[in-house]
Amino acid sequence: MPATETLKRFREITRLMKQYEEILGVAYWDMRTGAPRKGIPLRSEAVGALSAESFRLSVSDEMGELLEKLSSPGEALSRIDRRLVEEVKKDYDRNRKLPPELYREYVVLTTQAEAVWEEAKENNDFPAFAPYLEKIIDYNRRFIELWGVKGTPYDTLLDLYEPGMSAAELDRLFGELRSRLVPLAEAIAQSGNKPDTSFLEGTFDKEAQKAFSKFILNEMGYDFEAGRLDESVHPFMTGLNLGDARITTRYLSNDLTFALFGTIHEGGHALYEQNIDPELGGTLLAGGTSMGIHESQSRLWENMIGRRRGFWQRYFPELSKHFPGRLDNITAEDFYRGINVVQPGLIRIEADELTYNLHIMIRYEIEKMLFNEGLTVRELPEVWNAKYKEALGIEPPNDSAGVLQDTHWSGGAFGYFPSYSLGNMYAAQMMDVANRELPKLEEQIGAGQLHPLKDWLKEKVYRHGKLLQPAEIIQSVSGRPLQSSYLCDYLEAKYQDIYRL
Amino acid sequence: MPATETLKRFREITRLMKQYEEILGVAYWDMRTGAPRKGIPLRSEAVGALSAESFRLSVSDEMGELLEKLSSPGEALSRIDRRLVEEVKKDYDRNRKLPPELYREYVVLTTQAEAVWEEAKENNDFPAFAPYLEKIIDYNRRFIELWGVKGTPYDTLLDLYEPGMSAAELDRLFGELRSRLVPLAEAIAQSGNKPDTSFLEGTFDKEAQKAFSKFILNEMGYDFEAGRLDESVHPFMTGLNLGDARITTRYLSNDLTFALFGTIHEGGHALYEQNIDPELGGTLLAGGTSMGIHESQSRLWENMIGRRRGFWQRYFPELSKHFPGRLDNITAEDFYRGINVVQPGLIRIEADELTYNLHIMIRYEIEKMLFNEGLTVRELPEVWNAKYKEALGIEPPNDSAGVLQDTHWSGGAFGYFPSYSLGNMYAAQMMDVANRELPKLEEQIGAGQLHPLKDWLKEKVYRHGKLLQPAEIIQSVSGRPLQSSYLCDYLEAKYQDIYRL
């Protein structure tokens, strides 16, 4: 096959893989936003069957031959084609190393384990879940061996979600986080200046919440002609193609902030997907470059913009108008303080902006112990509880509120948790640059002009899609590798002010 | 390959084809119910690419070998497998006979032609559309040659939509229709007892229309756990799987009947799909057996139930309650007469239950002339206008309201139109039997008990899916082949009463 034919065929197959991803994404979105209950069993089978077709393309002998030819040093490829080859080759190498039978067993195991976990959590019965968790960890250990250890065994798992990340790097990042945020949280706990949050109690009309969510998305520059907002039990964003990045949220009548910050969070993810360079459209590079970078955009918008003083100076009057009589005696400053209350708790998904990172740090340390240091599943609850006591000063009364709280491990997603805090660190480091490169940023946000920041992020992050690796993104934005000091600086300054420390 | 292996592989591939159909159906539904505009170009490409993958399965050499083995007289197949082989073989034979290049040209041509038709209709410019229509007809003539002429050339096209149907049969059916319905329409036109329709003018709250649509679907036995009701510009039903048959409708604030009867119509289609035998689930036999039989169910529910006197004796008070103050001085009888007004018009999709059949008859006669009798495209407008004058007593003032009104021909769908009237004929013949086998039917409908009829239709029609051919269905329900006399009897009785002829 001549070189141009090889490239043509490679582009054709990878485009088809992306097209499977897109159409399956529509089915996935549909199942979570209102597909009728009785259609789900056959729908799930159909989704599984078509996923298998796409997987088959990605690990075929033909793909192997194409990749070999296109990876040879003599090939003069465009920047896009070269990255595409790299990306696809990485998955190919990984997937070809897993015996299909082993992988099938693992899929069956995790499917069962997810159901077992759900019941165990409900019944506070860790021993019921433990044997499944042990097996899942065993399988992951075998996968690591088959894939090849990079640095430490846990590094191999980290690379699945944050390409290039290592335990050594995370030790450095979480080390500083621990040394600065644990004392900060303690100082806050002892502060006498607690924000008032009583005005957030009671009910808030759901239709008004919906209207305000749409309003804020518009303000952020979310393009409703390239997306839509729906409701689902667990909010998510799905980037189906560059012209279709959908958001879901959930309106709770007794909680104003859940939908509000959930919407801004998913809106941040969507801004990323909507602003990828059209040149990448339809290729496998048309997506966020890593879990961590994606999470940096949702968290930047949710916390650093959405929970910012200046933002509410501009938008609190609008918010108040949406809920007549509900927030009349509250000032923008009251609201800002109320939504930034810090309260060490046991549950990660209910955590505030600051202590959230400590929840993640604990999970990171435990995962590393499991894969690098021989921690056993039996020892997990005890280690979990001790770490909560040490970092947050509180101890779970039972495993449901402790080691059983998250679904991730039941699905085998080890190495995923760090992405959440990496997102916060990337975001803080980016905002540090943005504050210097956009000298009027504070003023603009206070005036409801969010587009200069959005345009800046588009230029620096969004447009690149997967063309740049996470480490390349943060290096090119800030001129240095990822540091946790920016996040610590940001959190210290913000919360020292709020709590008058 | 041993026989059991052959069968296993055949079932596997055809199940996968069905799964493609289902997932692509979700994407199709999504595009018509709110997918964002900017995502459509890439989405359409993705749908096209996956459709091509499924098509490839259906015409592969492997499929050819499987079909040959499974069609051999020695094979002992179950009833389901045998029908599945027949169905798949029919498509295989048809598709293998078309040179792929020829078919690709045709797809491009019809895609262009649809856009040209839309503009020509807007500008009343038949000459602009004529060359495209000529080419489309030429392609269809070549397809007929390649597929093989059955009886007459037009029969080959009819078989695409109504397996086993022929021009000879339609001549017989439409012949009687013409001889009885044209005089009936004339008598109605001269009647002095015209129903009052003035109360249908003005506005009707859309939310109330939506609520009443849902109420009526529930009454019909539509299962909302196996479907959903949404809005789209052109209402449709899509049977994604046996647990997911979705309906769309369109609410017009100045037209109460559009959404009302549209919903009942699509609801009839959906009842068919929701009640197919679960044994057929996931196979290519899980669907309506033909366009005509499908249309019989939508029209039976829309017209023979939804426009029935007894139905509104039960439901008019409910309807009136949904629109406070709007229908206060109207009786159920007024409403029944008002929604059954007969008014010869030029536009098929606006036609009443009776004259609708004359619109179809005209299209049937013209299509037959085009493919069997050498009518040229140039002569079309003149023939069209003459036929309207003759059958309906009115003549289009221009081609936009005449020969250019329907989209079907621009997409190459010749042979499709007859299905609409076949649906009416099947429905009337079935209802004739239902009236005898369910002696309390009238009473039940008057009491809002629609489930005995639904259950009867499930037993006679729905559950069979594609296991029975259309001719087998009508034969097994009524003990004889399709006749148009039942439809004529029904329409005469109904409208002689309403118009006191």
From TrEMBL, chains A, B:
Active site feature: 266
Annotated InterPro entries: Peptidase_M32_Taq
Chemical reaction(s) catalysed: Release of a C-terminal amino acid with broad specificity, except for -Pro
Function: Broad specificity carboxypetidase that releases amino acids sequentially from the C-terminus, including neutral, aromatic, polar and basic residues.
EC number: 3.4.17.19
Residue numbers binding Zn(2+): 265, 269, 295
UniProt GO MF annotations: metallocarboxypeptidase activity; zinc ion binding
Family label: Belongs to the peptidase M32 family.
Source organism, top-level taxon: Bacteria
Keywords: Carboxypeptidase, Hydrolase, Metal-binding, Metalloprotease, Protease, Zinc
SUPFAM superfamilies on file: Metalloproteases ('zincins'), catalytic domain (SSF55486)
Name under which the protein is recorded: Metal-dependent carboxypeptidase
Keyword Metal-binding carried by entry: yes
Biological processes, Gene Ontology terms: proteolysis
CDD domains xref list: M32_Taq
PROSITE patterns: PEPTIDASE_M32 (PS52034)
Cross-referenced Gene3D superfamilies: 1.10.1370.30
CC cofactor note: Binds 1 zinc ion per subunit.
Cofactor(s) demanded: Zn(2+)
Organism: Cohnella pontilimi
Keyword Metal-binding found: yes
